[in-house]
Amino acid sequence: MNNKIRVLLVDDHTLFRSGIKSLLQRNDDFEVVDEAGDGLEGIKRARSLKPDVVLLDLHMPGVSGLEAVKVISEEIPEARVLMLTVSEDAQDLLDALRAGASGYLLKNIETDTLVDAIRRAAQGESIVSPQMTAKLIQGVRNQPKAVPAMVEREKFSPRERDILESLAQGESNKEIARKLDLAESTVKIHVQNIFKKLNMTSRVQVALYAVEHGYGLHSRNA
Prior knowledge:
Elements: E1 5-10, H1 14-25, E2 30-36, H2 39-49, E3 53-56, H3 65-75, E4 80-85, H4 90-99, E5 103-106, H5 111-122, E6 127-128, H6 130-141, H7 150-153, H8 158-168, H9 173-180, H10 184-198, H11 203-212
Parallel strand pairs: 1-2, 1-3, 3-4, 4-5, 5-6
Helix pairs in contact: 2-3, 4-6, 8-10, 8-11, 9-10
């Protein structure tokens, strides 16, 4: 049985792809299933290979990484897409996460940190480069907040609304379980239900939704 993390590399720089491939192949738990030099080819390979993790550059000629992550996250939701880019632009970060990326990493990341991020992404975690975390928080804070409309609130049970508040604050399942006095497995089920109701595939997407709809800010008084 193959328990390796199957990785697809999508980047328009051949030398960069070769370096990442060489890095991952030094670890027994990775298998680089293929490479692609642009977003369109990346989509095709993701469709046929169904990788566990897609490492995807943001700015590429032709079909961009942003366009590619939208298609991949919709068509292959089980594949976790990690953006690996030089862009430190807060809007690029927000756009990528809203499009379905499970994480956003800068290319100046340490090799050990990248390897760890891929492993965590394969387990369903969401990862943002530390340098970008403050920009993410600031970018979301700068947007107008609204108390969730009743039709939005009625999508969720009271417990799910509690969990949305915690997700808006970036808390892990373990932290949520401790705060709400629940089993971690129960929290995981609630989070999965929230994913289904919102038709989202990434924890970061849900956290952004929660912040943008006022959870964790106004919802206790709504």
